[in-house]
Amino acid sequence: MADTRYQTQVRTGARTQIDEGLRSYMMGVYNYMALGVAFTAIIVMAVAANPAALAAVYSLKWVFFIAVLGLGFFAPRLIFSGNTALAHAAYWGYCALWGLMIAPMVGHYLGLDPSMVYRAFLISAATFGATSLAGYVTKRDLSGFGAFFMMAAIGIIIAMLVNVFFVQSSMFSLITSIVTVLLFSGITAYETQMIKEMYVEGDAVGVAKGKSIFGAFALYGSFVTLFVHILNILGIMGRE
Q1: If exposure means fewest CB atoms within 10 Å of the residue's CB, which of 19, 105, 194, 220 is most exposed?
Q2: How many CA atoms lie within 13 A of 92 on its CB side?
Q3: Which of 146, 237, 161 is nearest to 193 (CA)?
């Protein structure tokens, strides 16, 4: 009987340690992500407040777009290189590029109606929080959706480019943004579960740090994408 009680206590203690370690790991991910969003916001506000800087950034918008896509592809390799400084550089560089890329759009809406930008941010935060929580607590395995999400994201990018260069339709842009918000809500849940399952108790410090930064990198991209397209939806609907 004493043996059974002892084994139960050991198992309970081990589960408690894992839960505490997992909570600490996920808090680290969310903290990095929140700091990344704040860093992006500072860059956006600084550029939007300077007409000359805004014009310069706008003239290079496609350069920043390509740079965001390129770093989005290569950053995970840099983050998991084992070099913490390189991982930080990749993450913060990614946040900075996003800030420069979206500054003209956000600056435009700030000039029209600042409250629209704040509403878009709050809606994005609520959407992200709900879907990330769903991904964290669900018992359903979401890993099978990975390939679908990847192909759908590529399709969305192609659709947006077609609209910019050929169709140039507000209605098409609205539909694309609605689909993107729905898609990245699912991606946020998928990424949260993936990041949670990456946790391993007793990881080396460098490995654990890399996983935290990678998790922040993945969720940051989804959050900013939600924000951009929710702002676009509000902007288009406000003009109708």
Answers
A1: 19
A2: 9
A3: 146
